[in-house]
Design a protein that fits this description.
Keywords: Cobalamin biosynthesis, Lyase, Pyridoxal phosphate. With 351 residues, the chain is an alpha/beta fold. The protein contains 11 helices and 13 strands. It is globular and about 60 Å long.
Length: 351
Amino acid sequence: MELIHGGDIYSARARMQGEILDFSANLNPLGLPEGVRRVLAESADACACYPDPLCRELCAAIAAHEGVPKEIVLCGNGAADLIFRLCQALRPHRALILAPTFAEYEQALRAVGCEVERHYLKEADEFCLTETILERLTPGLDLVFLCNPNNPTGQVADPGLMEEILLRCGQNGILLAADECFVDFLDEPGRHTLRAQLGESRHLLILRAFTKIYAMAGLRLGYCLCSDGALLERMAECGQPWSVSVPAQLAGVQALREHEYLKESAALIRSEREYLRRGLLALGFGVMGSRANYIFFRSPVAGLRGKLERENILIRSCKNYPGLDGRYYRVAVRTRRENSLLLAALRDCVR
C-alpha cells in the first residue's frame, strides 16, 4: 500500500541501503531543540503515571505563548487528531476545501458522511487563493477548511482576503477552520494569523501544531484555539481521555521556551529556501509559492521521484492531490549540505 503522505522512511528503508535524504516531510531541519531532548530523556519516571487528560500545564503555556485565555485552548494527538475531532463534533452536512490542499480535511469530512465541495485553485494564479472563494461561502455551507500557508503550494492568502472570508463565514453561519501549522515558517508570521480575531468571532477555529516548527512529528502534539467553548467541549468528548502522552506534554511546555531555537530556525529557513529556489529555477524547474519551509515546483522531467529514489533521496510527488498531476512536486527546505546534494542529483536528472 502506498501511503498518501511524505515522511514514509520506514518503507524507504526496506528498499534502500545507506543514508536516506528525506525531503518529503516538511520538518524543521534543525531537529528537536536541545531543551526538548533533555526533557524527553528525563521523562521516563513520569511515564509511570497517566497523562493529565486536561493538559493543564501545557494549555497554560500555549495560552501564554499565543496571548489568549487558556479556556480557548484544546490539545490533541497532532493537528490531524483535532481535524477528525472537529468533524465528529460538528457533523457538518456540507463543507468546502481547497484543491490542492492537505488530504486529511476531506478524509475526516467523508468519515462523518459530509458532502465535500472543492474550490479549485488555478495554475494561472500560481495556485493562489483569490476572491473567487467568497462566492462559495453561502448559507447551507457548514464548514470551510483553509490551510494558510497552503500545503503543498506554500502560497499565503492575502490577510485582507482572510478577514473578508471570516466576515462572510460569520454572516452565513459557517465555521472557518484556519490551519496555521506552517505559519511560523513565514518571514512575517504575525501578518498571516487570524489569532487576533478569535475574541470577536465564534465562527473561527485555528489549528496549530508542534510537529513542523519543532520537528516533533514522532511525538504527535497539536492544538486548536476557538472561542466557542461548547464546540471545544464536544471536540474533547470525541477523543479518548489520554490522547496527549506525558512525554508530549512535557516536550510541548519546554518547546515553547526555546526562543533562540526559533530565531535560528527562521534564519536558516530564509537562507536555505532562497538557495533551493534559485537552484531549482536555474535548472529549469517551475517554482511557485514556496513561502514556508518547502518548495513547490513543476518538473520538466518525467518520473522525477523514481530517479531521485535511486540516489536515496525522497521527495513528495503531488500527483495524488486533487487539482494537480504527476508534473508537480514538493521538497522540504533542509540544511545546506542536504540541499546541495538534492540540487546535484536534480542536475543529473535534467542532463
